[in-house]
């Protein structure tokens, strides 16, 4: 059971008006981007945005979100333009919803409901569907009073008009029961997945997770990589130019440049003010990221607000507590902005520029991913014969050298090297190699895309 709020019963495209409230504390650029994004979301959900209404205020009106005058104006617009649904630009409080529904002759939605609706349309797997329904119920619960209409859509069997106190209680109990049931079913689905995960861990296969803003190109990149380097199932759905195209996690096996197998995973994209009920419900999907050995942060470098989008992604990653992982930032869609200055990402371990559609930069990306994805490093103490000079210079290139001496039998080295190189050096070990435990530090969220530096210019 899903709420397809945007469609009416006849399946006719609904006519929507967007209402934006710009508060004194809002940053101009970020606010405008979020509002433009809301338009995209409403269209993605299938409605036609007929017009927009904006208001500047210090604070939202405590009763009706927008002021009384604006509300009157909105009423006139609804009448005149034959509007079916009003969409407000942020998450409305239960009180706002109640008052606005009473004051307006059409349906009232907020940004969160639109996102929930898109998720409901997209969910394909059992887990995805359960998660969306759970998020919808979490959103609905505190807003039950006055949402008789919403309840009838959601519950079906429940009476249509409310909110008599008794009915409200029945609704609450019904929803609570459903929440419990959904949580139980989700637990079951997840248990299965955990089994898979354990097996993977045992085989020491590194997991590389794509994260990024919605529409950044994660799926397109996944497809390009799997086509080139995939082993096993190479089917990946085509990326599409629409918001929240991907909801369910796809994982595929890929061969890294050093020959080792890795698992790449593509999952749901992020957005500003990702509804909290959704983060809660999708926590386990998002937490897959927490299991990853490497996080690949895909950025749409051609988007004018890509820095804001990056900050949003880092906010979510911080909430998921995964900023201690190595991060490879991939500036994608570079074909659309050739020569543009892009900037650095102080949060990432490495940066690379690619075009997923043209395939540019993928090999460099794979090499960097290879180096960052949990490749075990070992501290070796060796004496390499002089005739093996190539090996010595390889240690210089790939390792970190702590001691070096030219001895009679060869070059004495104490160095930290990748597992693969340690294997090659095995014959010359003077003592057992030691495992190097990677240092994990929590990074600070910090951005500065304002001052171009000469070596950051893309040629
Ligand atoms: N020009 C250009 N377009 C790209 C590139 N990579 C992706 N796109 C386009 O960007 C749009 C979004 O791509 P997706 O791969 O679906 O994006 P996503 O990050 O998976 O999006 P969600 O699943 O919604 O989070 C599609 O229309 C792609 O064709 C690129 O390198 N260059
Ligand atoms: Mg996708």
Features:
Rossmann fold; 14 strands; Alpha-Beta Plaits; 459 residues; 40% helix; magnesium; elongated; disordered C terminus; single chain; 20% strand; 14 helices; binds magnesium ion; six-stranded mixed sheet; four-stranded parallel sheet; alpha/beta; binds guanosine-5'-triphosphate; disordered N terminus
Descriptive account of the structure:
- By secondary structure, the chain is of the alpha/beta class.
- Among the domains are: 175 residues, P-loop containing nucleotide triphosphate hydrolases (Rossmann fold); 59 residues, 2-Layer Sandwich (Alpha-Beta Plaits).
- It is 40% helix and 20% strand.
- It has 14 helices and 14 strands.
- The strands form 3 sheets. A 6-stranded mixed β-sheet has the order 6-7-5-8-9-10, with helices on both faces.
- Helix 1 links the parallel strand 1 and strand 2.
- The N terminus and C terminus are likely disordered.
- It binds guanosine-5'-triphosphate (GTP) and magnesium ion.
Distance between the termini: 51 Å
Q: Specify the biggest β-sheet.
A: 6 strands, mixed
Name given to the CATH homologous superfamily of the domain at 204-373 and 452-456: P-loop containing nucleotide triphosphate hydrolases
Q: Overall mean pLDDT score?
A: 82
- Unreliable stretches, pLDDT < 50, 5 or more residues? 1-5, 147-165, 439-459
| Beta-strand fraction estimate | 15-25%
CATH architecture of the domain at 204-373 and 452-456: 3-Layer(aba) Sandwich
Helix content: 25-40%
Total E-strand runs:
14
**Ligands, deduplicated:** guanosine-5'-triphosphate, magnesium ion
CATH fold field value of the domain at 204-373 and 452-456? Rossmann fold
């Amino acid at each position: 059971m899903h709420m397809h709020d945007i469609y009416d019963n006849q399946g006719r495209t609904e006519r929507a008006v967007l209402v934006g409230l710009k508060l004194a504390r809002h940053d101009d650029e970020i606010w405008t981007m979020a509002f433009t994004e809301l338009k995209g979301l409403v269209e993605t959900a299938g409605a036609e945005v007929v017009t927009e209404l904006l208001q500047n205020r210090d604070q939202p009106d405590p009763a009706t979100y927008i002021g009384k005058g604006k509300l009157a104006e909105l009423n006139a617009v609804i009448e005149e333009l034959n509007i079916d649904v009003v969409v407000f630009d942020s998450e409305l409080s239960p009180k706002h919803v109640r008052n606005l529904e009473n004051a307006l002759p059409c349906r009232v939605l907020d940004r969160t409901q639109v996102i929930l609706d898109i998720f409901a349309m997209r969910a394909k797997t059992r887990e995805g569907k359960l998660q969306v329904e759970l998020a919808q119920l979490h959103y609905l619960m505190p807003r039950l009073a006055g949402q008789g209409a919403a309840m009838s859509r959601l519950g079906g069997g429940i009476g249509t008009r409310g909110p008599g106190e008794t009915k409200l209680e029945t609704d609450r109990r019904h929803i609570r029961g459903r929440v419990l049931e959904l949580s139980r079913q989700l637990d079951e689905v997840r248990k299965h997945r955990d089994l898979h995960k354990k097996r993977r861990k045992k085989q020491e296969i590194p997991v590389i997770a794509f994260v990024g803003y919605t529409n950044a190109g994660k799926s397109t990149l996944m497809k390009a990589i799997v086509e080139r380097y995939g082993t096993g199932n190479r089917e990946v759905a085509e990326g599409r130019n629409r918001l929240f195209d991907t909801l369910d996690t796809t994982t595929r096996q890929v061969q890294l440049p050093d020959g080792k197998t890795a698992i790449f995973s593509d999952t749901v994209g992020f957005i500003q003010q990702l509804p909290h009920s959704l983060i809660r419900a999708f926590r386990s999907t998002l937490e897959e990221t927490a299991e990853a050995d490497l996080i690949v942060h895909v950025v749409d470098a051609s988007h004018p607000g890509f820095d804001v989008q990056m900050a949003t992604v880092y906010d979510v990653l911080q909430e998921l507590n995964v900023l201690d992982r190595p991060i490879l930032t991939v500036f994608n869609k570079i074909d659309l902005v050739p020569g543009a200055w892009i900037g650095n990402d102080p949060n990432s371990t490495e940066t690379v520029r690619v075009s997923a559609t043209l395939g540019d930069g993928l090999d460099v990306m794979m090499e960097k991913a290879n180096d960052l994805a949990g490749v075990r490093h070992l501290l070796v103490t060796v004496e390499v014969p002089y005739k093996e000079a190539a090996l010595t210079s390889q240690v210089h290139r790939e390792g970190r050298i702590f001691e070096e001496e030219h001895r009679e039998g060869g070059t004495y080295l104490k160095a930290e090297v990748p597992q693969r190189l340690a294997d090659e050096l095995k014959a010359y070990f003077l003592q057992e190699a030691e495992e190097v435990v990677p240092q994990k530090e929590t990074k600070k969220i910090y951005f500065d895309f304002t001052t171009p530096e000469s070596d950051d210019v893309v040629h």
